[in-house]
Records
---
Amino acid sequence: MEKYIPRRPMLMSPAYKDYLWGGTRLNDEFAKNIDSDIVAETWECSTHPDGPSIINSGEFKGMSLVQFLKIFPECLGTHPRKICPDTLPVLIKFIDAKKDLSVQVHPDDEYARTHENGQLGKTEMWYVLSATKQAKLVYGFHHDIKKEELYAHLDDGTIENYLQKVPIKKDDVFLINSGTVHAIGAGALIAEIQESSNLTYRLYDYNRVGKDGKKRELHVEKAMDVANLKAIENPRQPMRVLRYKKGWASELLARCKYFQTERIILNTETTHEMVDFQTDETSFQVFLCLGGCGTIIGDDFSLSIFKGDCIFIPAGSVAFKIHGNAQMLKVSC
């Protein structure tokens, strides 16, 4: 008998992190209803062991995405980034930076495999949802710097003078390749798409202390191993072209060997028609709703989506329609 493969879109429920730099906006503005005074990150679509997502609709409600993909690995698709049969190759987050994040760097896949027990490295992209007038990000160094110089600046606390700080605003896009020294600055609310990894090497953390009253751990030696110490050009916003169709528009935000991210602007309220969607066998897709609301409608199901919701769509999905007025990110591999 042919194996049953579920093909309907599924609402996800996130894991969360209460890192000391986080705020309250994900609860206040995205209705996450998480029982914590601080919600720094929500891991919206994740099979990472440090924060797996839970299915929150349909016949598999209450099951982790990890368990689901172990049973139905076909739902990942046939794409070349399928790193193992039951593991999502990406991790999708919301990040609320009330305070500055640490200055950090991520390893590439090769270094992570060799030095971190076969884990993945991390290339990531940020889409800025909102930012205060003062908000900035750290993106590499102003000029080439030698390891011994960097050690000295870390020791005497002058490292911030040598970091390239870039003002940011709503709707900006940044691709952060592994090896790039970086940090999200205070006042930024961001959607992040990244490799499925939680490897972060802290280079500098403003001498902050954690919940235990001790300074947070740094990973200077590993950071030095993987960091790009060459000057990096001030990042420019990529050329973006909106492509219009009846009831919706889309634009490519980022494409790399790990993932592709598009922004979808849905507005069927004036067309009186619904937009048709369906994934092929190549890749799953993830919809991350950034604002507005809508309804996903199939032959025998419907699913309401609101600001902050995340929808996992299996590869080879059933045909479905979307109606509403919303902005979303669409992620695939």
---
Amino acid sequence: MVKSGIEGIHHVTAIARDAQRNVDFYVGLLGLRLVKRTVNFDDPGTYHLYYGDEAGTPGSILTFFPWAHAVRGSRGVGQTSATAFSVPEGALGYWRDRLASQGVLAAEPAERLDRESVLTLFDPDGLQLELIAHAGAEERSPWAGSGISERHAIRGFHSVTLTEHSLGATVGLLGETMGFRSVASGAGRSRFEVGSGGAGAQVDLLEDPSGGHGRVAAGSVHHVAFRVEDDAAQSAWLADLAERGLHVTPVQDRQYFHSIYYREPGGVLFELATDPPGFTFDEPLAALGSGLKLPPWLEAARPRIEAALPKLQVPAAAVASAESAA
């Protein structure tokens, strides 16, 4: 079986505590669309919330498990230490002021590789995010219902940053196995890209030989998923990864994509997720995120599940956009 290449980042999944606070921050403040409200299929007593662009395009999707009683995580080695979004050049002044108006502290923009400007901020649970202004960001469309002007709005992922004790084995996996190539380095940061490259297809590595291991809990990334074309491609990857000695899971049905999981040598959990079937699998584009969606094997438990979940209010701009599109 011919194995097609990885095409970039599919999604990033993180852990939060309060579901409503999470929605308010990512929809109300950052202007992402609530693409899907479902549950953690392995723990249906908690939501699984998906945010992204209008359609939840692979490469735009940040998801959360909001566990109300989760302890606070900590950043360290063996973790995805930052998740970066793309914004157009010149947008960071707007974002600094918007965040400050809501009491969200952000560092002053700093320069990074390839003349990028980076604004670092933290969500209410302490998850480290970055907004990276760079040439070409406007080639991807923002969600029109965000209430944020097109010249400032988020355009999907730029990259993720992994922090490792040492880089050698991780570089080997990214390059020799997964098809990433080295494209830039500087100030202790090494950048790799895959597929057609550029924003949404980049992984940065930071080396911290003396750093302590991070704790995956509230305010940290659970896993990073990369894009594969379809089920056939995923099957080929599963066989290849297993042959290389990686402990890869069987295929998991996540309704909107199919997934396999494995850990890279430094400990970060990776996923390979299929692009199809996508988020319109069980509700139309205009109604995405408007109701609780459950997989068939959980439908019989819907009354119990709904009773256990907190009610969510989606910020008005998002609701108005969905209604106008209907």
---
Amino acid sequence: MRTSGAGTRVPAAALLLFLAVSFGVATAMDVGALVAPLQAARERGSFGSVGGRAYEEGKRGGADPTPYAAVSVLLLPRSPAFESELEAIKVRSRESLDAYVEAEPKVSAARLAFEQALIGLGAGQLILGEASAADGAFRFQRVPEGPWTLLAWRETPHAKKPVAMKKSEAQRYRSRPQIFGHTAVVFWSMPVTVKAGEEVTVRLHDRNAWMTGIREDRRVPDENQPTVPQTQQGAAPR
């Protein structure tokens, strides 16, 4: 559950659905014009490629970089509406703690809505996805020439034990979600222009990240979660 500026509690699932629908309506108008040149390039065989590497730069001068494996990398047709929506989410994420926590789900909702708009117009083949290998490398072959947006993200989970509750509290609040940790998500977003017969090289590292957000692991605790016996209430720590 999240609290809006007016103090109304809004379920997270409803928030994501609203964002997906509203953004999908906004982007549907310009998607057709965006994909037509890329589809034409695909039909005539005008392909380039995009390759790159994801890594953390060496901490000291001359130190080798640390590769980032399993980074999700997407190439999507470049859309001014989509890019503007992402930037607006990033700007709003700085306004409050709630806005910061909501930023990652909003970026994901905007991306999914854009993908659905592409699929709805029969342009699902223009959603290109890869994951970086153990050495951080990734490569897209046969990319239709034209303007693209590269959107990538790296997830780092951080587990947390839920707060132990007394038996009476566990019974009373057993259906209330608790935070079991969070996942830190680092995003990269950048324009890429592909030319036929050429390869574009991209570097994703800690200094050119576009935005960092978090995704909370918020769920109802297991019924078998340990509780604090009533006799320990108020006991001094050992």
